[in-house]
Structures are given as structure tokens and as C-alpha cells.
């Protein structure tokens, strides 16, 4: 009997903007099994249940074993390979969303150090990842349940984090800013409005966003609005002007220019492109 197995689930559509599960599963790998070199378009956490292997990223090789965790960042070339003698078994979850970067900034994961050795609460991390898998399904209720369990799993990493207080403070300010943006992006809010709500100066807010998100609050606000605009272009029949108003632009021309700068095409061309792709499928 072959004792190698792989069970996985991939969501058919990313329905939740703040945080959503892209895929989830667990696998007992064959000796020398390798993924990569390649990139992912989402975050991907692996918890090693047993065995060992290597994770290569940014010209660094990490030797990992049971109880260790490694994170794959979006658009970052990686290779991970099971040991030839003791191939690893791991559980994983892939996810995306506007909350993802902020949450991960509150953990001990960083791009410079994407692994956590001998993770605290390892058994609980494994259990939560398998709970996400158990909640899989293509209905909206499944997406909500998987996301709820993902928040619980990520909270375990935050709970055991050794971050400095200044980092945690910046995360708090940024998270509060994102909550404000999420609730008010459809109005013509400005960075000054965000800073006022959080209770910071504009320069302090800028430094917090640069530390946590590696982008300015203005860039984050614009990117968030563009993501909402893309959703409306795909899933509604609203006019371009109506969509511009719906995502906080009171000037349709400025909206179109901003959209073109971010997406490389006009909103009208973007909608046409989506329709062409749907017709092909």
C-alpha cells in the first residue's frame, strides 16, 4: 500500500476582500519531492507535521523539520524540497486579501526571515489548518467559515510573536486606518481624514504605513479603490461614471486616468477584456 498522499482544496472564486482562503490541504511527500522554482500569487503557509526538507528563497536555504513553519510571499521565487531519507509531511493554507499583509506584519514572519522554527502551539496550528480544510466547499457559507478559521490560525502566530512594541503600535494604527478606509472608501476621503480618525499626524501615519505595508497610505487607498472598481466592472452593469462615484472619485476623468495608470488600460477596455475572457470560457 502506498503511504504517500495529498489532499487539497482550491477555492473557485476569491469572494471575500479582507481575507479569504485560496487553497488548503495536507500532503505526505515522496522522497525528494520538489515544488519550484516558481512563484505564487498569494500567501502560503506550510506547517511541517513530520519529516524534514529544505526551503530556498532569496538565495538562502532553510533546513526545516517537524514543528517548523515557512511562509511563501506573493510573487517571490521559491523552491521547497522534501528530504530524500525522511520526506516531510505538511499542512498548508494559501490566502489573500487586504488584511493579509497587516496580519502577517504582526507575526514573526518577515521577507528577510520567512520561517518560524519550533513554532509555539504547533499542535494547535496543525489542528486549525485541518479545520480550514474540513470547512471547504464552494458555497458562500463555506468561504466565510474557512476565513473565520483562517483568522483563528493566524491569531496563533500573532499570540506567540516576539515583535517590538513600536512594530505592534504601527500595526495597530495601520489596522485602524484600513478599517476606516474599508468603511468609507466610497466617499471622497483623503489621507488627512484617515490620519485624523486614527489620531496621528500625516507624517506619522505615512511612516506607519511604510513600515507595515511598504507603501504610503495614499497608495493603499488608491489600490483599495481600484480593487473595488475592478469588482464592479466585472460584476455589475453600472456605467463608468457610476463606478467612479461608487469608489470615491467625484471626477470621472481622474478616475479613468488613475485606473489606466494602475491597470494599464482604461476601465472600459478592462470590462471588455473581462467579457472576452468569459466568452472564451
Task: Explain what the structure shows.
With 281 residues, the protein is α+β, with helices and mostly antiparallel strands. It is built from 10 helices and 10 strands. It has helices at residues 100-105, 122-134, 140-159, 165-184, 191-198, 202-213, 217-235, 240-246, 252-263, 267-280, and strands at 5-10, 20-28, 34-38, 43-50, 52-57, 60-65, 69-72, 78-82, 89-96, 115-116.
Rounded to an integer in angstroms, the radius of gyration calculated over CA atoms is: 21 Å
How does the overall form come out from the CA principal axes? Answer: globular
Total of DSSP H or I helical runs spanning 4+ residues: 10
Number of strands: 10
User: Could you give a short account of the major beta sheet?
Assistant: 6 strands, antiparallel
Spell out the helices and strands N to C.
EEEEEEEEEHEHHHHHHHHH
Model regions low in confidence, pLDDT < 50 over at least 5 residues: none
Mean pLDDT value: 89
Question: How much of the polypeptide forms β-strand, as a percent range?
Answer: 15-25%
What is the multimeric organization of the chains shown?
single chain
Give me the side-by-side strand order of the main sheet. 1-2-9-4-7-10
Keywords:
281 residues; alpha+beta; six-stranded antiparallel sheet; four-stranded antiparallel sheet; 10 strands; 21% strand
